[in-house]
Amino acid sequence: MSRKFLETDGPAWVAEGLITEEQRQKLLARYPHQAQALGLLPLLGSVLVGLSALSVVAANWQALPDVLRLALMLGSLTGAYAAGAYFLRRGNPDLGHGLIGLGLILFGASIILTSQIYQLVGYDVSGLVAWVVAGVALSYVYGSRLLVLLTVLIGAAVQTYCVQALGSFSYATALMVAGGMGYYWWRRPDAVSSTVLATGLLWQAGLLIAVLHAKITWFFVPAMAIYAAGDWQPHRVGGRSLQVPPLVAAYLFMFGLATFGETDTYANVLRPPLLPYLGALGAVLALSVAGKRARGRFDTLLDWLLLLPGFYLPGGLPLAVATLVVLYAHAGSVLVRAHRQEDPNQLTIGAILFVAATMVAYFKLTWAFLDKSLFFLLGGVLLLGLSWYLRRRNAQVLAASATPERPSPPAESTSNP
Amino acid sequence: MRDLLTWFSDPARRRPLFRFLVAAQVLYVLGVAGAGYATSALGQSVILTTTPIDPRDLLYGDFVRLRYTISEAPMALWRDAASAPSRRQAVFVLLAPGPDSVSTAVGVYPKAPKAGPNQAVLRGWVTNVYRKSFALRFNLERYYVPEGSGLRLEKAGRQRPLKVRVSIAPWGQARIAKVEETPKAPKPRP
């Protein structure tokens, strides 16, 4: 409970007789003012001093002798690390990990600047792979979320540089991030880090597809491999967090297909050879299903609806209708799951997905109004039926298990639209 | 060792591991510097010329993009009867100095050739294959310039070829040692 909440609502509680004034004071004393703002001032001050020093060095960088430049870089590198270790020992993990992260950034900067001094940079990426290795090792040693985020970010940046400047994909970088940070995720599936890791890996997968000049739909094979890894994760929340980015990507793609699929202009960009593509995606699906089975998570199986390769259908109305049906079915599956788990957040997401699909259907399809009307009637009836069925089932379940330890049913305000 | 992560994050091991990691990073940066220094100290020096290129492309941030006369080789220089050059293939360019001390390519080999006296071998990669020639890169296409001199080099490079002194280390690494403007228009070479 935040102190601010107590301060604003407390007097009303006293007035209503919920608590006495004495109790309110006791509660307030329990949540003291945090000295965060005060602690921030020296930090901001030192950042400014640091920036000033940085500017002086940057302005004279080219004029400095090589040895001095090297000494400056290594000095700040070891300085940042030493300060980080010092603050960790003093019991200030935020500042400590922040400084170690700064040291890691300085390591990359040192590699780049040293290569520039000696005209070695350009096409040599082995130096930058060492940067990723250092990030992975530091994440392992300190297990800090900040370092994990930084390492994933560094991996993505190095890969982007490789692809953009050199036109080649660094498999070493991809393996380092997927293997090194993947193993970390497997042992410590923290929700935020999982989503960041998946996003970073998706970014690299996208770059790989771009470098190979492959059809963009191949992207979903590595993306869903990441998803399948989430199915095998013993920790449910961590696994699900890893699955969010691939699912968002698949949904956006399906949404785009529904929006622009009526014209056939995109077909050539989208259609990879049928058998290899379906084979690869099928293998990933099998892996995912096996994982869901092993961990008892079949309720998320309908996520795979988004991966139905509708783009093999001839463009035009068949494709548009097929993708719409898939979008509706997916939204429905999210709603059903939300109801079953009594999860209001999921319910909101499902409702939003449903409205989005309806908007596409209404604004994009060049149907006659009668067709539209029939389509919406069908959709509305389906949804009403679903809602009726779910409520009935809920009531039955509640009636059957009227045990005291069961949490009370959520308010009816969470019923679907 | 039960699992890698617990091994790494064991508090008793944290301090020595951290010290090792920091030392490794410092040594790595020193190694990069050392490799750069050793390449020019121990390496063989050759002079290459650039071809004028699109000036918009030349100055790119704080480095100058260079394009060498040897960056495009006629197919006649390819020294492998068995197969044609393919994209991304690593190759070795045999360089020999001409009368004006500028080196030119005398052959492009898929395997390192034996260099004669005065000759040098430069590593390169095939970037493109055309019908009668193929394009190469040498990781020497960027020259980081001291502030301000980039514009001067750009101007010079647009009008005349630049002379680039390259050091090639015995272990194959190459780096630019110096970029000079040619004093006057060079004689056209055959």
Automatic annotation (TrEMBL), chain A:
This is Uncharacterized membrane protein. Pfam families: DUF2157. It comes from the Bacteria. It comes from Hymenobacter arizonensis. InterPro entries: DUF2157. The chain crosses the membrane at residues 37-61, 67-88, 95-114, 120-141, 146-163, 169-186, 207-230, 242-262, 274-291, 311-335, 347-367, 373-390. The lineage of its organism: Bacteria, Pseudomonadati, Bacteroidota, Cytophagia, Cytophagales. Keywords: Membrane, Transmembrane, Transmembrane helix. Residues 12-147 form the DUF2157 domain.
TrEMBL record, chain B:
InterPro entries: GDYXXLXY. The lineage of its organism: Bacteria, Pseudomonadati, Bacteroidota, Cytophagia, Cytophagales. It comes from the Bacteria. This is Uncharacterized membrane-anchored protein. Pfam families: GDYXXLXY (PF14345). It comes from Hymenobacter arizonensis.
